[in-house]
Each structure stands twice: as structure tokens, then as C-alpha cells.
Design brief:
Helices cover about 60% and strands about 5% of the residues. By secondary structure, it is mainly alpha-helical. A hairpin with a 4-residue loop joins strand 1 and strand 2. Helix 1 packs parallel to helix 2, helix 1 packs across helix 3 and helix 9 runs antiparallel to helix 10.
């Protein structure tokens, strides 16, 4: 019964409710524990696992809310910086962006061994558009978010091209684009972490799935159906035969 002491009173109430026990108002923690463990259908292993899932869900929700709160705080700080540092140029009213902020507080550096470049650049663009940074100023921020070996590759390009975000993006996509099978692995194995919202998790899954199907030139429902069926067969094929399996 010691496991019941790992949660809060509200967790015990939720557990009792899930077990379809009658919870009366004003019950104390010790009484809730007694109610749960003395139930006629009490199964310690099942109840223990259920209680753990209730606690995990509560903590995940709390972590997600905290992540959203931190994001909103950072967003407010950035917007305040943008407001202070935007200036109008003479009579043409051209806007010059001078605000500087730490992009890594919102978007971590790109890791070519773990990250998908297409998804990363999409997230990068969304963040800079969010704080109204013009595309002409994106390159310095991009360089600051990439590892040094990739930056060296960029500076070796034609000087004009290295200042053009669109051309740099095309180069990165061509160089670091993942294979169809790697996209498939990311889609199948991707798990939501406590640090990201469900909206972001859905966006990431969608990006991996689209990368997988795009690399294989899937354009019709029939082709998609054949791909899903082939993938299911491949995943259930004995290891000794997988190397002979023909990919879709």
C-alpha cells in the first residue's frame, strides 16, 4: 500500500473514481487509501499501475502548462524588445530591425544526427516570423542556430548566395535531407515529450509523415494504401529476411 503515498489527495480521488468507488465529500487521505485497498475487487498490481498513470498524466499536464507559460514569457520579452528597437527610416518609412534576442531559448541548435532539417527550418521560420523579423535578416540567426561545420559550408558558397536565405535553405535541404526510410522511422518511433505541446507534437508527426511519402513520390490514395500495407508486412518480417525485402 506504500505506493499510494507517492501521489496527492486529488490523485487518490481520481483513482477511486476510476475504480468506480463511492467517494464522499470530506474524506481524508487515510480514509481514501482505506476505501481503495478494502474494495472487494481490489487488485494491487492493477491499482498500482493505474495510480502511476494518473500521477504521470498530472505531471505531464503540469509540465506542458509550464512550458507554455515559459514560452509566453519569452514571447512577451521578445515582442517588447522588437517594439523598443524598431526604427523608421526617413520619409520612406522603411523599417529597420535592430532587436537581438537569444533564439536558442526558443529553438535549440540543429543536430544533424538527430534532427530533420526540413522540420527544423520550418520551426526556425515560424519563430522569426512570429517576432516580425524580416527574411533579409534571417541568415545571422540561422548561422547562430547551426553547428560550426555547417556554417563553414555556408560561407564557402558564393558571397551573394550565402546571404540569400532561400538559396541557403535549398542547399541545406539538399545536403541534409533524410531518406524515406529514416522519415518512416521518425514517424513510427516519435514520442511526445513533456517539453512540447500536443499541437507541436502533431505538427512534428505530420512533417515526418509528409517527408516519408514525399520522398517516395506518393501522390494517390492507392499508392498510400500500398505503402502502409507494405510497411506493416516489413515490420513483421523475420530479421533474417528483412535485407531481402523490397521497399515500396
Amino acid at each position: 500500500m506504500a505506493y499510494l503515498g507517492t501521489g496527492r489527495k486529488h490523485d487518490l480521488i481520481n483513482l477511486a473514481t476510476e475504480l468506480e468507488l463511492q467517494v464522499t465529500e470530506g474524506l481524508k487521505v487515510v480514509e481514501l487509501k482505506q476505501l481503495i485497498t478494502s474494495a472487494e475487487s481490489y487488485d494491487e498490481e492493477f491499482t498500482k499501475n493505474l495510480f502511476k498513470s494518473i500521477i504521470d498524466e498530472r505531471m505531464a499536464v503540469a509540465a506542458e502548462k509550464e512550458a507554455e507559460r515559459q514560452f509566453e514569457l519569452e514571447k512577451s520579452r521578445i515582442e517588447a524588445g522588437v517594439s523598443r528597437n524598431m526604427t523608421h527610416a526617413n520619409s520612406s518609412q522603411e523599417v529597420t530591425y535592430q532587436a537581438k534576442f537569444d533564439l536558442s531559448r526558443i529553438l535549440p541548435k540543429f543536430n544533424p544526427k538527430e534532427d530533420e532539417i526540413g522540420l527544423y527550418l520550418t520551426m526556425f521560420e515560424r519563430q522569426l516570423k512570429f517576432v516580425n523579423i524580416p527574411e533579409t535578416n534571417w541568415i545571422p540567426y540561422l548561422i547562430g542556430s547551426l553547428p560550426s561545420e555547417i556554417n563553414q559550408m555556408i560561407v564557402k558558397e558564393n558571397e551573394e548566395d550565402s546571404k540569400d536565405y532561400v538559396k541557403v535553405k535549398e542547399m541545406l535541404l539538399k545536403r541534409y535531407r533524410l531518406s524515406a526510410d529514416r522519415f518512416r522511422q521518425l514517424f513510427v518511433q516519435h514520442r511526445k515529450s513533456a517539453e512540447i505541446t500536443w499541437k507541436d507534437y502533431t505538427f512534428e508527426l505530420k512533417s515526418y509523415f509528409e517527408g516519408w511519402t514525399t520522398e517516395l513520390n506518393i501522390s494517390t490514395f492507392e499508392e498510400l494504401k500500398e505503402l502502409i500495407i507494405a510497411d506493416q508486412i516489413k515490420r513483421r518480417t523475420p530479421p533474417e529476411f528483412k535485407e531481402h525485402f523490397v521497399d515500396y
